[in-house]
Amino acid sequence: MNEQKTPKKPLIFYVVLCFLALMIFNALFVPMMQNMRIKEVSYNTFVQMLNDGEISQVEYEDSQIVFAPSDKEDPYIYMTVTMPDIDITNRLIDAGVDFGRVQEKSNPLLSFLLTWILPVILMSLVGFWMMRMLQKRMGGGPNAMTFGKANAKVYVEAQTGKTFADVAGEDEAKEALKEIVDFLHNPKKYESIGATMPKGALLVGPPGTGKTLLAKAVAGEARVPFFSISGSEFVEMFVGMGAAKVRDLFKQAQEKAPCIVFIDEIDTIGKKRDAGIMGGNDEREQTLNQLLTEMDGFDGRKGVVILAATNRPDSLDPALLRPGRFDRRIPVELPDLAGREAILKVHAKQVKLEDNIDFNTVARATAGASGAELANIVNEAALRAVRCGRSAVSQEDLEESVEVVIAGYQRKSAVIPQKEREIVAYHEVGHALVAARQSNSAPVHKITIVPRTSGALGYTLQVSEDEQVLMSKEEILSKIATFTGGRAAEELIFKTCTSGASNDIEQATKLTRSMVTQLGMTDDFDMTALVTVSNQYLGGDTSMACSEQTAAKIDEKVISIIRDAHKKALKILSDNEPLLHQLAKFLLEKETITGEQFMSILEEYDRQANS
Ligand code: ADP
Ligand code: MG
Ligand code: ZN
C-alpha cells in the first residue's frame, strides 16, 4: 500500500514556492497590466492636445497631471508632469474640460477578480493540495476528508485469475475451502438444514506452501468480491488507524456480502496480547480488539467469510482461535511425494518441455521442498535450458536445478589444489560408503566434487525410493553415522581432519539432540520432552525445559551417541578400504558418480571379495 511517491522535499518548500509565485505576480504582472493603459507624455503634448480640444477630463495633482482623451477609441490614459504654467486652470476651464478623478479605463470586474478572487483561489488550491498530500502520507484514500479509510483491495475473479486447478496437491485444504466456496454460491442449501458456515478459516503452514495462492484460488472459484489486506497494513504510523481500518474493512465487506475477506500474515496483528515487554504494543492491541469485536458483530449467515493465513499459529491470541471466530484451522503442509510431483507438473505447464520427462525422479530428490521452491526449480531449469541454447527443458536441466536450489551454482572456475580435491573426494565417498553399507539408509543417488557457490566443495545426494513419514531409531542412528562418514574417511586415509566437516557436525548434532530431547529414543530419559518447540513452521526453535543437571546429562548422552556413530563409520570404512580407494579414484577422474555407477562398482567389489 501507499506506493504513490511521496514528495521528497518537505511541505514547507512548496508553501514558500507558492508565496514567492504570488509575490512575483504582484510585483511584476499587476503593474504591467496597469502600465499598459497609462501613457506618459511630455508637457508640450498635453498643451497641444488641450489646444486641439482632445482632452475630456483632467486630474491635477501636486507633481503630475493625469488626463483622459476625448477620443473614445483611444485606450490610454495620459500622464505628464506639472509645470509652472500660471493660467493653465483658466485655459482648462475655457476648453470645457471636466475636472476630477480620472477613472482608469480598467475593467472593474477584472480588477475585482485580480485583487480578490485570484489569491483566494490560489490559496485554496494550495491548501487543498497540501491536504491531499497529508492524506496520502497518512495512508488514506484519494477521497478528501476520509482519514483512515481501509485500503482493502477488492479482488474479483478476473483479477486473481487463480483457481483450484493452479494449486497442486494440498487436497485436504482444497476440500475444506471448497465447502466455503459452495456455501457462498448456495447459502440456501446450508440454511435449510440449519447449518451455519464457520465465520473464519485460518490457513496455517510453513512459508511457500501456497497459503496465499489458495486464498486467491478461493476468490477465483467463488466469483464473489475478495477483500485482501495484509496484517502489516493494519499497523501503521498513526495510532488508532489500525482499528479504524478494521472497522472500515468490515463495513465495506458487509455492504458487498456475500464476499471473502482475506487477512494475510495475520500474526502481525493477532499476536498474543501482553506478550510484549513494557506493556506491549498499544496500537496492535487496539487493532486486534477491533478485529475481535467485528468478528463477533456480524452475522455469519449473510455470507461474509474471513480467511486468514499465518505461519506462526502458536503465537496467535487464543481469543482469535475460539469457536465463532477462526474456528476452522486448515493446515497447509509441505507437499508429499505425490504433491511435489503434481506441483512440478503444474509449473512445468508454463515452460516448453522435452518428451519423456520423469517428474517422479525430481520429486523424489526434493523431499522437504515447499511449493515455492519447486516452482523455483522449474524456473531455474528453464533458465538453464536457455543458457545452454536449447529450446526445451530437459530432464538434466531439472535435476541440475534441484542441485542449484540445494547447493547453489557450480563454480566451474574455482581452482582447488589437487591435494584438497583428493580430501574432498575421500570425504564424499566416505559418506556414500557408510550409507551404502548400512541396511537402514537411503540409496546413494549421486556423488560429486564440483564446488558450488554455497561453499560446498562436494556432496553426496541420497534419494529414498518412496516417501517416508516415520523414521525409526535405527534409521536415525545410521543417518548420524553417515554424517560422520566424511570425517572418518579423512582420518582413515590422511590421518588428519579438515574444516570440511563443519556442516556434517552441525546436522549430526541437531539430529542427535532431537533424538534425545524430543523423540524420547534413549533409555536414560525415556519418553520425556526436554525442550519446548516454538515456531513449528519456521524452523522450529527449541528452548531447554529441564534442570541444569539434566542438560549436562543430555550433552553427555548426545556426545556418546555421536561418538558411537563415528566409531561405527570408521569401522565400516576400514573394513572396505580398497573399495574406498577405488571409488575415490573414480570420483577424482570423473568428478561425478551416478547412483548406478556407484552401485555397480560396489557389486563388482563384493563379487570379487566373495569368490
Ligand atoms: P505462502 O503464502 O504459503 O507463503 P504462496 O501462496 O505465496 O505461499 O506460494 C508462493 C508460490 O509458490 C506460489 O505463487 C506458487 O507459484 C507456488 N506454490 C506454492 N504451493 C503451491 C501448490 N500447492 N501448487 C502450485 N504452486 C504452488
Ligand atoms: Mg503468503
Ligand atoms: Zn561431509
Relevant terms:
611 residues, alpha/beta, Signal recognition particle alu RNA binding heterodimer, srp9/1, Rossmann fold, Helicase, Ruva Protein, domain 3, 6-stranded mixed sheet, 5-stranded mixed sheet, 23 helices, binds adenosine-5'-diphosphate
Description:
A hairpin with a 3-residue loop joins strand 2 (55-60) and strand 3 (64-69). This protein has helices at 11-35, 43-51, 88-94, 108-138, 157-160, 171-185, 187-193, 211-222, 231-234, 241-256, 267-270, 282-297, 318-321, 337-348, 359-364, 371-387, 395-407, 418-436, 473-494, 502-517, 548-575, 577-590, 595-610, and strands at 38-40, 55-60, 64-69, 77-81, 98-99, 153-155, 200-204, 226-230, 259-264, 304-310, 328-331, 444-448, 459-462, 531-534, 541-544, 592-594. Mean pLDDT is 83; it is low at 1-7 and 140-150. It has 23 helices and 16 strands. The chain has 611 residues and is α/β, with parallel strands linked by helices. The two termini are 74 Å apart. The chain has four domains: 38-105, 2-Layer Sandwich (Signal recognition particle alu RNA binding heterodimer, srp9/1), CATH 3.30.720; 153-331, 3-Layer(aba) Sandwich (Rossmann fold), CATH 3.40.50; 337-406, Orthogonal Bundle (Helicase, Ruva Protein, domain 3); 418-610, Methane Monooxygenase Hydroxylase, Chain G, domain 1. The strands form four sheets. A six-stranded mixed β-sheet has the order 6-8-9-10-7-11. A five-stranded mixed β-sheet has the order 1-4-3-2-5, covered by helices on one side. It binds adenosine-5'-diphosphate, magnesium ion and zinc ion (ZN). Residues 211-212, 264, 309 line the site of magnesium ion. Residues 167-170, 207-213, 309, 343, 346, 371-372, 375 line the site of adenosine-5'-diphosphate (ADP).
